[in-house]
Amino acid sequence: MQFTYHNPTKIFFGQGQIHSVSQAIQKGMKVLFLYGGGSIKANGVYQQVLAALAEHDVIEFSGVEPNPTVETLDRAVELVKDQNIDFILAVGGGSVIDGAKYVAAAALYAGNGWDILTGQHQVTQALPIGAVLTLPATGSESNMGSVITKAATQDKLAFLSPAVQPAFAVMDPDVMKSLPERQLINGLVDAWVHTCEQYLTKPTGALVQDGYAEVLLNSLKTLGEQFAERDNDSWRANLMWTANQALNGLIGSGVPQDWATHMIGHELTALYGVDHARSLAIVQPWLLRNQIECKRAKLAQMGRHVFKLEESEDLAEQTIAAIESFYHSLGVATQLDKYGDDKAAAISAIVNQLKQHNMVVLGENQGITLDTSRAILEQALK
Ligand code: NZQ
Ligand code: ZN
Questions:
Q1: What's the whole-model pTM score?
Q2: Ligand nearest to the CA of 143
């Protein structure tokens, strides 16, 4: 266990917290107010943010799409440069916040912004960012990751830099009241898989990381079981906080991490438009089955501590089945059926994209080669 942990994002959590934006951004700053397709206008978040920014110089940029594209974001980069923006306020879900991170970094880079995603440019500086979270799922509001798509080539790639970690995040669970059921479920599943990616590896005896990961999984399992009673303050607050804690860097500190489900899932989103969380539910059970020998001990531990399963020789197998049942109980599919009518061609297309993106050895043991990914996809595609 050896790590440096630093999470500098200041969190304003609770009902009515959006007004905190007013104090959180220095007065006199020129602020880019970045948002998505307009859900914030329908639920009153837009009006609350504008009220909080009454004493700031504000310029708006809307239309950041789910799975944000570099094509759209580069227009925001131009605006930031032209208008000498000092601060970027992202108001939305993971897509808008990830988009803000890209814009903040690309605005201070003279080259082609896409270099940030290909790794040709390492981000060391960016404009400061704040986030008003409207969809709990990704943890982007207090982490240093960002995932951006190039629509022209269907590339969905990630970058990480402490320079783009938000300075603050406002988490008011009331904003979730307007979320469609589908997005609430996506949030639950994404946070679940984030926890698994940092927990379902090999035993290291890291009691705090394991124990806290199990707390988060138990919390998400309870929220899933109580899904019918989701229209209450406590349910919303618990999902918002759990999803944040699942990917703020803490449970992954000093322990092996997997992330292969995410890397394969990103290709499904880029090629077939599957929602991010749903791409994970399609890949993960099959990946776990494929990798069961190296993950057996942690799967068994999850079976005991999360699903409360009895000891048995096939505890790991039972745990995977329980994960799959959890997804099914939420109406989330664990196989992809929308890929056209040629399964072999679809698998080759996905594997080819993995190769293009240098995702040729994945997982905590670097044991998931392209052939392994192909075998996983054989099961994951219906
Ligand atoms: O665009 P608007 O109109 O705001 O509508 C959005 C969008 O259509 C809507 N929505 C958001 N808040 C709402 C709302 N509708 C009603 N009421 C509200 N309060 O929900 C839709 C989906 O939003 P999006 O931001 O795309 O969802 P999510 O938060 O799941 O983000 C997904 C993106 O994050 C990336 C994914 O790859 C994907 O691109 N990820 C980012 C990570 C990170 N930065 O750490 C990690 C994740 O694993 C993930 O890869
Ligand atoms: Zn995710």
A1: 0.98
A2: 1
